[in-house]
Amino acid sequence: MLGRSAATIKCSNLRLYRCLYSTSPSRAKTQRVKKQVAELPQTYTLPSGERATPLPAFQDASNAPRTLKAKKKGSLKRSKAKLSESSLSEGNATLGHRGDLQPHDDTSAEAMNQPRTQLAREIVENLHRFPDCLLLTRVGQFYESYFEQAKEIASLLNIKLTSRKWGGGRVPMCGFPLLHLDRHLKTLVQQNKLFVAMCEEFPISDSFGETGFERRVTRIVTPGTLIDEPFLNTLENNYLLSIHLVPEKPAIGLAWTDFSTGEFFSKESTLETLQDELVRIGPQQVILDSSLRDSKSHPVLTCLKEENISPYFFSSQGEDGSIQQSEPETAAVSMLSNYLKTILLENAPTLDTPYHETDSTKMQIDAHTIKSLEIKEASYEGCPSTSIAEIEGWQSTVAFFSKRPHLRADLIEHLKQVGDISRIVQRFTLKRGDVSDLLSVKKTIDLWGQIIKRKDDLECKLRTEYNAPSLTLRASPSQGMHIHIAKPKKDSKSIDMDSSFKKIGESASTKSYFYQEWSELGTLIANTTALLAQAEKKVVSNATLLRSNSAIVDEMDVAIGFAVLAEELKFVKPTLTEERHYHVVNGRHPSVEMGLMNSGRMFTPNTIEMTPSSNMHVITGPNMAGKSTVLRQTALIAILAQVGSFVPADAATIGLIDKLFTRIGAKDDLFRDRSTFMVEMLETADILRRATSRSLVIMDEVGRGTTVKDGLAIAFASVHHLVTKNQSSCLFATHFHELSDMIGCTSAWEGKGVFDTVRFYCTDVNEIDPGVNRDSHGLKVARLAGLPPSALEVASKTLAWLNEQDKDKHALPELNDSASL
């Protein structure tokens, strides 16, 4: 309610007037006030800027309440109080949804009909401070919204819109119970990407012992700063990403954090690879410097638009108004940190040093590949590694658990009891943890104790059983896990009759009693609360250690998952080398294989080998013969190998791959006025520009979607560029069987001249063999799809006629080795 509250009165003179508002003041209170009022200055300035004159001293105390009560409805009541200075005014900033964060000096509360109550002033002041946020103000057990925002919120939340008296009129108003906050935040923030300023109320007591409320905005909830809301998907990261650009340079700085877990990363990248980073990171919110607000055609804004991301602008200016210049990565980290301080206010954390990512240590996967292969990275650093030592470390851990099914099963049961420690520790760091979180931390710590105890028990058992006192259980890089032997409620009448109840207060409708047992229980509760507070502090003080242990648990969980997968699907340990070599014997597509197994069918494996002397495979074959499956499984096996997993094959030797590109599938982009063919050409152009000799390129049906001649020319040019310029390992699937003639296919299914590293393969009934398939069997697929017989007959006759007309073979165009296509 917009009622009177004594919450935040700062002027002592006004406090004297306030105590006279009582309709039945005690005699002592009245006499005290009369004396203090007589000592007031004749005039003084109120916090709002108004000039006030004290009331004349009154002769009869009985007239005082009536005299001052009349003043309650006048200017004195209107300017009686001012909001106490809080952390909100320290920043003196205005936060906007998709808007700029600029200094905002206007905190006057007189803009909207001169609000007459403290709550009204608080609402108006907060609306001025946060003009582009939806303001939710807590009033008792409800959150309320007013003015035009109430209309928007009522519409979005499908709740009743009403009105409330405000000054001399009425204003729109809506509200909902406190218990419904999480559900409505999901609608406003997560679904509609809006900013919500949360104004909470805090009880305070004045010098006369009366309790009021102070209200202040403690946090602004945004899509990228969710902490522990129930609707937050704990199985996915909720990243907030900042992007810093260097004027007139291609370098950009990236910094991103999951505020719910405390994970923090940074990286220096380029405009060319920004879209790949956006798809890989998958941010829920992106912030840019406000200087880009009016740059409608900036490449960064174009990339964000292509990924359907609406940026939020933030002023990263220094105190002198200049843009803070630094290395791109450092500047992005600084902007992200400052943004969090502005948004989170009282919940702003101290960020740890971010984990620094570099392209040289991770396989780079472009945006098209992530989408076409239907993969999405988990939080584990986002990319497969290019470090053989790191990969082999993972392989050893997976192998260890693969060979010990009983230990693996035991650990799985223990891991089921472990909570998400990273999120729990983060909640305590932000002072939002509770008892259940402490119990989850305890379970995780207990897990390590149980594991150590089992180790000690086993060691003791072995010493006793085998009479070997010097026996110890050890682990070393050379010997692994090994054994070491040094030397081989009642009514008031009933209560009043009980002497253990001592009445300490009474009014017309209530009585208050002192009860010893309840007092003791209250003391116990207070002590327990203090102990819990100490435990919370201990968790926060050990946050770094707990996060480190949590990371170990996470890695163990992943390794055990890899081991279970390897056992169930018969995966093998691949060999990683520095050489340009990809050799997978009887490789399988893991997802397709599992789908076939569920339907009682077997997957047909295929062998792929690419070396520097045979790095381009041109694959032809009929529709529905398995070309796309072979392409996808080749890419997926490479990814699995470089994340440290075993792979679905009989054997595998894979040279480290620095970048993975695919051009698979067909889609248009009508929203951006791009046809299917245009989308495919953009993807092809990106590959030809960026692929290196250590890259793996997968291309499917390049050149389709236009005339046969145009498409064939584009396909030929792509193969030529990949062979002569990029020199990447490549699988190139096509229905242009004429391409084999243009390249110069020999009887040994090899290319000629500049195409001598090209090898020709064809698919038939899901098997891949050397050769060229000159019949796509499109009519068979059309028949399986159910085309009418009459249409099939016409198609058959037309195909025969076209074959008669096309007797000439395509000749190889005359191109120099250095030709640039």
UniProtKB/TrEMBL annotation:
Keyword Nucleus included in the entry's annotation:
no
Which keywords does this chain's UniProt record carry? ATP-binding, DNA damage, DNA repair, DNA-binding, Nucleotide-binding
Quote any Pfam family the record assigns.
Answer: MutS_V
Superkingdom classification of source: Eukaryota
GO annotation, cellular component aspect:
mitochondrion; nucleus
Q: Which biological process, per GO, is one annotated for this protein?
A: mitochondrial DNA repair
Q: Does the keyword ATP-binding apply?
A: yes
Disordered: annotated span: 42-108
List, in alphabetical order, the Gene Ontology terms for molecular function in this entry. Answer: ATP binding; ATP-dependent DNA damage sensor activity; mismatched DNA binding
Feature: compositional bias, Basic and acidic residues: 97-107
Q: Which residues form a coiled coil?
A: none
Residue ranges of domain DNA mismatch repair proteins mutS family in the record = 695-711
**Biased segments, Basic residues type:** 68-81
Alphabetized SUPFAM superfamilies for the sequence: DNA repair protein MutS, domain I, DNA repair protein MutS, domain II, DNA repair protein MutS, domain III, P-loop containing nucleoside triphosphate hydrolases
Similarity comment:
Belongs to the DNA mismatch repair MutS family.
Q: What is this protein called?
A: DNA mismatch repair proteins mutS family domain-containing protein
